[in-house]
Design brief:
The chain has 2 domains: about 120 residues, no CATH class; about 190 residues, Rossmann fold (3-Layer(aba) Sandwich). An 8-stranded mixed β-sheet has the order 8-7-9-6-10-11-12-13, sandwiched between helices. The chain has a 3-stranded antiparallel β-sheet with strand order 1-3-2. The longest helix is centred in the middle third of the chain and has 14 residues. Helix 4 crosses helix 11, helix 5 packs parallel to helix 6 and helix 7 packs parallel to helix 8. By secondary structure, it is α/β, with parallel strands linked by helices. It starts with a strand and ends in a 10-residue tail after the last helix. A hairpin with a 5-residue loop joins strand 4 and strand 5. The protein has 11 helices and 13 strands. Helix content is about 35%, strand content about 20%.
Length: about 325
């Protein structure tokens, strides 16, 4: 069996190189993140095993090995995509676990470890020493919870004793300014409205003593191609890091449309919102993994600031396979 190495910026691109070179049924023996993206080690498949059903008709075996099948079923019910699960299973083929039959006690935890290696996280979003995230703009489609997420992050920063300012660019949504102004008043932090990139640029020096500046943006459809250049201009004017808010219940095809629209802005992290409102967050999670984007937070409800946790790759992977884990990091 001739092994080949494939490297790309994202897992999806690396797997596409594998499919192009080794075929759709390629054997992936290793998948891991690198400093510049992802590495996949793969080979052309050997002849597929064949069995006979009760009528004597030849059929191919299940797409999963017998040992991995129960875990794949659980993860699929969670919404995890075949692409990511196939990468996990084939990485396991290079280990000592027994995939020929169910019941290897090491398999669930090792599967979670392999998956956790594919989940990139960005934990510097709330690190006061990370200058890159001092000014943070929250972007995303309409109705994903950008303003609520901003409120949670701002309240957490205040609870850590940090000076905070809030600026909104959202003059489109009815009562959006009043909603955020009320929250800023409750936190006793500076609040202002920016109508243009020039407005935003001029306001930044007024908050030079703040450790955190949070910028709320107008939610737009990812198909609104005229809005994206305007948003990009605002982000550049403010020197903003960019946090994409994506509802955890979004279907994979819709997630791809959102990411394709917003990635040109230069996304620094993703927050999966409304995790509590879906039973299958795996499609959104898998799409983020395949695009090679890092997760910063999960939002678990509407309470401010309680219902938000920092992304923990091991906790997330354990949830995918429904394993017993300790409480999430607050």
């Amino acid at each position: 069996m001739l092994l080949k190495r494939f490297e790309a910026k994202t897992l999806a691109e690396a797997l596409e190189h594998v499919r192009a070179d080794c075929g759709a049924d390629a054997l992936v023996v290793e998948t891991r993140p690198t400093r510049t993206g992802y590495l996949v080690v793969a080979a052309r498949p050997e002849a597929a095993p064949i069995k006979r059903d009760q009528t004597g008709t030849s059929t191919f075996l299940s797409k999963w090995t017998r040992g991995f099948q129960p875990l794949a079923d659980v993860a699929t019910d969670f919404g995890m995509t075949t692409n990511v699960l196939r990468a996990v299973e084939r990485a396991l083929l290079g280990t000592k676990v027994d995939l020929s039959r169910p019941g290897d006690p090491a398999l669930p935890s090792l599967s979670a470890r392999v998956l956790s290696a594919l989940v990139r996280t960005e934990l510097r979003v709330e690190d006061r020493d990370a200058a890159k995230f001092r000014t943070l703009a929250l972007v995303g489609p309409t109705g994903v919870g950008k303003t609520t997420t901003l409120a949670k992050l701002a309240a957490r920063a205040r609870s850590r004793g940090e000076r905070v300012a809030i600026i909104t660019l959202d003059t489109y949504r009815i009562a959006a300014v009043e909603q955020l102004r009320a929250f800023a008043d409750m936190l006793d932090v500076p609040f202002s409205v920016a109508f243009t990139p020039t407005d935003l640029r001029r306001q930044m020096p007024h908050h030079s003593d703040c450790a955190r500046i949070f910028v709320d943006t107008t939610g737009r459809s990812p198909r609104d191609h005229e809005a994206m250049p305007l948003l990009e201009g605002n982000l550049r004017a403010g020197g903003c890091a960019t946090l994409l808010c994506l509802a955890a219940g979004t279907r994979a095809r819709d997630c791809k449309v959102v990411l394709d629209a917003y990635e040109p802005l230069g996304l620094d992290a993703v927050c999966l919102t409304k995790w509590d409102e879906t039973v299958a967050p795996g499609e959104a999670l898998a799409t983020v993994i395949e695009h090679g984007l890092p997760l910063s937070h999960l939002c678990l409800g509407q309470e401010v600031p309680a219902d938000i946790v920092t992304a923990d790759a091991e906790q997330i992977a354990s949830a995918v396979f429904n394993l017993e884990v300790a409480g999430a990091t607050a």
